[in-house]
Amino acid sequence: MGDLGGGPPSLRAGDRVAVVAPSYPAEPERLERGCAVLRSFGLEVMVGKHALDRAPSGLAYLAGSDDERAADLQAAWCDPAISAVFCARGGYGAARVLDHLDWETMARAAPKLFHGSSDITALHIAFAQRLGVPTSFGPMVVSTLADGEPETIAYLREALFGTDITVRGTGTLRGGRARGTLTGGNLALLTSLLGTPHAPEPATGRIAFIEDVNEAPYRVDRMLTQLLQAGWFEGVAGIVLGTWIGCGDLEAVFADRLVPIGVPILAGVPVGHGPGQRTIRLGADVELDADARVLGPGTGGGAEGPSHPGEETP
Fold first, then answer.
1. So which residues are the catalytic ones?
2. Whole-model pTM?
């Protein structure tokens, strides 16, 4: 396993990786198909003890109790033989494990790649703030890799094995360029953490990435308003909008809530949900060129404010 300049460590063929379920339980057949994809990358795969469990409390949407899910995650993170921890799927439950992890013990473990998306946003935020490590946000073992979609698998392999990834969007809501550390994740999870001990730090000087799935426009408006009123967008350098599958037409919502912030905004980046997903590195330095519709690896040196902002384009 090697270091990837500001991003999470990259993998090498032969590395041992763990698949854990901090949220929903995994379905056995889909778990095996997803793990087979990881093995096709030349990785040795082990599965967390409780990945297929159901919570004893009767909450069938949780993969075991909060303590059990946390124990699987912590054991994998602290095992020096494990080079990466993959989350099986999202759904709900990741935020519940935050109070059950021994963060001091985890901080003493050597950093490694941590990968997941959607509900796993709660853990991305906590890993950044409590462990100070960058993380990998992209398609998960059961929810996406099991589908065998070639494009998504190819993109993930590039990201895992150390290629500097450039992702392209489909629209510019406000032109300009900016650079900074990439932060954010799933919109619903970011807002759900506000007011808790695990609340996300403001995106000041950073590039904010957000995405969501199956949320009506008024709900997206409400969550963006909550983040705005909480000061999360205070001093943000730029904004990247991922996928919004099942969310309807959000053009007016984004124009009303985000464009007035006055920073470059790139839309239509294929990260979050749906086919053809790319993988991005939260906590890594990135450069955003909203005019060229590109988000790429940064050169470091801190944040840069928007430059030559253009007019809105379709």
1. 118, 211, 273
2. 0.92
